[in-house]
Amino acid sequence: MVAPPGVPAERVKILREAYAKALKDPDLIAEVDRLRLDMEPSTGEEIQALVKELMEQKGEVIERVKKLLEN
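Below the sequence we write its predicted C-alpha cells.
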C-alpha cells in the first residue's frame, strides 16, 4: 500500500494498523497457503525506510542501474 506525500500522520497510522491486521487474517493466510504463495510481510515503517534508502542513492548508482535495466 502506498500513499502520496503529505498524508496526515494519524491517517498513515490507521492505514498501517489496518494493513497489519489484514495480514493476520486467517482467511487471507489460508488463501495464501492454498495458492502456495510466499508471504513475508513488512511493516510500513520498514518499507518507508527502504524507499527512503533507495531514493537517496548517489547519481552514479542511479545511472548504473538505468544502464543495467536497458539490457
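The chain has a mean pLDDT of 91.
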